Amino acid sequence: MIRIRIRRVVSLLMLLMAMNAGAQILGVQKSQDLAVVVHKQLNLENCGDRQEGVSLNDSIDENKGVEAQSQCSVPRQKSMRNSIGLKFMGLSFHPLSGKPNAELMPNRLDKQAYFVLDLGALLSYEYFIVPDVLSVKFIQGLYADCAAQLAGVTSIGLRARIFQIGRHSLLGGIGPTWIYRHNWYHIPNYVDTKYYKGTPTDKWQYKFLWYGGELEYKFAISSKLDFATIFVPGYPDLMAFAVGVNYKL
Question: Does an H or E element contain 52, and which?
Answer without folding.
Answer: helix 2-56
